[in-house]
Amino acid sequence: MSLPQSSPIRSEIRDHIGEVVMANPPVNALDAEAWFDLADTIRRLGRNPEVHALIVAADPAIKHFQVGVDIKKLANDPTRTEMIGVNRGCWETFAAVYDCEVPVIAAVHGMCLGGGVGIAGNADVVVASDDASFGLPEVDRGALGVATHLARLVPAKKARAMFLMGSMISAAELLEFGTVERVVPRSELMDAAREIAGVIAAKSPLVIRRAKESLNAIDPVDVKRSYRFEQGFTFELQLFGDSDELRNAFVDKRAAEMGQGRELLG
């Protein structure tokens, strides 16, 4: 069971564990279509009675887990259609992770930025490689959002400092907070994720699905509504020139440094 080869989102089921893999070189920045593909794939696998647990990961050949949206595509779209699309696509993906009928394990390597934090923050369990780092560069790109999900990974004051300064945090630090379950060498990441998923998948599927539903029901924050509120400020910022200037400056810098401009916005 998989998407067409042209899609950057791959999926399969093995031993009652669904695996969703993002594979969009060079850094897993996704456009609107890919975000909707990701959301649809997660929902479809979560509804499948043969799936008892789900892993969301990145192709190990790609340097980073997920770094947000395709900024170059945003900068080249004066109609703002892509901006509306990626905002809706991100919301759909994060909601799909949160609402997934089975527990979701995020397996994170390299950088986890913007949209990557949205996925990890809404996952039920996070495992990370020892080279993984997490952060939100949104303010530096003229956008907002995903503070809702960062706050599920770090304490409140730390979330504010990271959001306002655009600073990063390591997987080892998140392990100390207890929001990352395990930190392993990169070569062992998927094995660790599959081990945890296997423990969950071996339990009663009915009980596990009800457990996921009950855990969501007692959450103190409505993450879908909270994130949608944040997105309103991103749209507001698009009415000012600062956002375009910051985004275009980023694209120009990345194009000069790497020959492309796709990275780092959620």
Summarize the structure in words.
The protein has 266 residues and is α/β, with parallel strands linked by helices. The protein has a single domain (9-186, 205-258), classed as 2-enoyl-CoA Hydratase, Chain A, domain 1 (Alpha-Beta Complex), CATH 3.90.226.10. It has 11 helices and 9 strands. The protein has helices spanning 32-47, 71-75, 81-99, 115-122, 147-150, 156-165, 171-177, 189-201, 205-217, 223-237, 241-258, and strands at residues 9-14, 17-22, 53-58, 104-108, 111-113, 125-129, 133-135, 168-170, 182-184. The strands form 2 sheets. A 6-stranded mixed β-sheet has the order 1-2-3-4-6-9, with helices on both faces. Strands 5-7-8 form a 3-stranded mixed β-sheet. Helix 1 (32-47) links the parallel strand 2 and strand 3 (53-58). 48% of the residues are buried. The model is unreliable at 255-266 (pLDDT under 50).
